[in-house]
């Protein structure tokens, strides 16, 4: 299940015909389950499954999300998303929904059909960085423009 984050993202422009062609040619080129190619020594080890290093802003629609935990101000969960319009980012539901993990595990163990109470993460706890490439030993969050979420839907 996917959720949309309404963010005041203004970096989006239409892609050209040539850029769209490249995206279509490369989309889905690697799938989970395919063997990863050997990684030469000195290559960064922070790649997505079977991925390759990306140049800064090579994928301007990629989004790094940091969700601050409400009870622990200095603690963050990191997720990714995709910018789908100038004002919207799509991400996975587990990035923007909070629930009691203990209750979820317990209900799974006893095979309960009861659902676990869930709530949306408050928008002010979500920060987004659009088009970010993170270094292997650093953090995305001091770099680039940080956008605050205005809604979680």
UniProtKB/TrEMBL annotation:
InterPro entries from the UniProt entry: Peptidase_S1_PA, Peptidase_S1_PA_chymotrypsin, Trypsin_dom, TRYPSIN_HIS
Domain Peptidase S1: 49-104
MF terms (GO), sorted A to Z: serine-type endopeptidase activity
GO biological process, one term: proteolysis
Pfam families: Trypsin
Protein name as catalogued: Peptidase S1 domain-containing protein
Organism, scientific name: Ancylostoma caninum
